[in-house]
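Sample entry (374 residues):
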Amino acid sequence: MRSLLLIWGSLALLGCQPCPQSTQSTQSAQSAKSEQRAQSAHIEKPNALTDAEERLQTQAQERPSIPTPELAAGNSPSLYINQIQFVGSHNSYKQAMPDSFVKQLLQLNPKILKSLEYEHGPVAEQLDHGLRKLELDVFYVADENQFLVGHVQQIDMNSNCATLRICLTQVSEWSKNNPSHAPIWISFNAKDEEILGLPDPETFTPTAFALMDSIIEEVLGDQLIRPVEVAGLNWPLLSDTTGKFIMILDEGGVKRDMYYQGWQQRPMFTSAPEGHPAAAIMIINDPIKQFDEIQRLVTAGYMVRTRADADTQEARDNDTRRRDAAFASGAQAISTDYYQPATRFGNDYRVILPQAIRCNPVTAPVDCRVAGSN
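Predicted structure, serialized as tokens:
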């Protein structure tokens, strides 16, 4: 991210002006009034089981044996939502960057440009492909009581859904047409970084987060799985969560601490530190370096999101090691930029499952089965 900030600043100093396409996208959005084995020390699993681990083992031991699962229809009736695995998209809203910005960045730093060469189709199409995890970057616009959705203020704001309310409404409409879907995760980055040469975005404050909560409640409120409902890692059954959503604030530091004050009333989960009453979902980006940590956490009852690829490198090299580690780690949510084959790089690198969800390779019982239409 530091290198990106330097590039943005250098572009500004070289006279990069907002491209027409980007400006048009921002203006149209503003007119819609009604819108991470860790490099840190390896943590060994304690000898004594935690309460959550004991619960997880008890759940598995108490499940009835299900005969001839290959002949049975539907999902295992006693399958919990932390015992499945699914794929999602990274920066799900993102369209290609405007050509004028691409040309300047190509001259200045082709390596950085390569890391940004990805784009996605509309979020409803992604859900049709079986993705069950979406990621949105949001910018607070206080004067308009809304949040713009985009990557970098002013210069990389081309989005399939211009505002938070529009994005959530599109997802809500898809859900209404597909009411039996497995829970869909939507995570958010609250974007307020200052970048040299670009307009300073508005800082996320308690007021901003309150507004964000209100929009989520307005559009998806009755379909939410809430943090308070799973306190103590008390995950619900998959069969009880069809048509539901999990919202996640993917932030650390001040913004996370600010948000999880009063977490019992919040609609969004946070990446709270392990052991915190609000801790349930962890964002752990590198499934190779952090493989053991991910497995330890999912075994302890947490749900984890990791990344199968980053900065387009795996797709360019057709390198599946990170993808394979992500799936084997037992992380429930696997994020990618390539749920469609990476044909632009001359290969078929892809991260997808045969169906929307599958039995988790670490946490699922041996007799697990899932239906093909989740």
